[in-house]
């Protein structure tokens, strides 16, 4: 290099990508996760089924209570008696009728306890947990109700018709009021059976529509 000559060196300014001035901003838009919106038609259908479920439970409660009360108060004493015998018929004379009263009382108690869960299904129609629980317990209550109704119906039929093969005579000719009240209790229990079948059907439909 000669004296008197100068060399100019241009130094390009260094870009600091880590600093606040030279930092590049990302322009990629954020993708929002879509929130599933329940169909209004399905929502209305589920709510309608839940309301109908509540109405059916009230009907099943009334039927079960009426059946238990009718059988539990059934009894008749004939106006004539002897020195050693008094002709009387009552539900507690037959273990089948005693089982009927206890079973229908249990069914009625279960229906009372299930009503709050039915209300939850009305408020939250898409909640599958309470609906599945009601479906299982309704099936258990239906089994108990059917067993009590069938056993009592067999005894009432025998009381009305008798059995000639075993020389069992019909008692309803003498104890007409007792047989009529017991028959009404059996009819009420079968009405509860029908209502429980509808409850199970509607619960299954509600669960199926949620998938």
In short:
The chain is mainly alpha-helical and 211 residues long. It contains 4 helices and 2 strands.
Walkthrough of the structure:
This protein has helices at 40-72, 95-123, 128-161, 176-209; strands at 75-81, 86-90. By secondary structure, the protein is mostly helical. It has a two-stranded antiparallel sheet. A hairpin with a 4-residue loop joins β1 and β2. α1 (40-72) runs antiparallel to α2 (95-123), α1 runs antiparallel to α4 (176-209) and α2 (95-123) packs antiparallel against α3 (128-161). The longest helix has 34 residues, at 128-161. The protein is elongated. The model is unreliable at 1-13, 15-26 and 28-32 (pLDDT under 50).
How many individual β-strands? 2
Give the SSE string.
HEEHHH
Strand order, largest beta sheet: 1-2
Find the structural class using helix and strand composition: mainly alpha
Shape, per Cα inertia axes: elongated
Number of helical stretches of at least 4 residues: 4
Index terms:
mainly alpha, 4 helices, single chain, 211 residues, two-stranded antiparallel ribbon, 6% strand
């Amino acid at each position: 290099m000669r004296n008197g000559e100068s060399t100019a060196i241009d130094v390009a300014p260094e870009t600091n990508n880590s600093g606040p001035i030279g930092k590049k901003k990302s322009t990629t838009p954020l993708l929002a996760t879509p929130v599933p919106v329940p169909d209004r038609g399905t929502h209305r259908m589920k709510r309608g089924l839940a309301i109908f479920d509540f109405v059916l439970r009230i009907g099943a409660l009334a039927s079960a209570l009426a059946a238990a009360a009718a059988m539990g108060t059934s009894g008749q004493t004939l106006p004539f008696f002897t020195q050693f015998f008094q002709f009387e018929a009552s539900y507690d004379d037959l273990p089948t009728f005693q089982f009927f009263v206890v079973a229908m009382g249990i069914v009625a108690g279960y229906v009372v306890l299930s009503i709050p869960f039915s209300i939850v299904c009305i408020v939250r129609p898409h909640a599958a947990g309470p609906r599945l629980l009601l479906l299982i317990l309704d099936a258990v209550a239906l089994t108990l109700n059917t067993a009590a109704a069938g056993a009592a119906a067999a005894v009432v039929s025998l009381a009305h018709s008798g059995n000639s093969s075993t020389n069992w005579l019909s008692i309803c000719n003498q104890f007409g009021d007792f047989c009529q009240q017991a028959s009404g209790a059996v009819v009420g229990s079968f009405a509860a059976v029908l209502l429980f079948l509808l409850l199970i059907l509607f619960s299954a439909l509600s669960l199926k529509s949620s998938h």
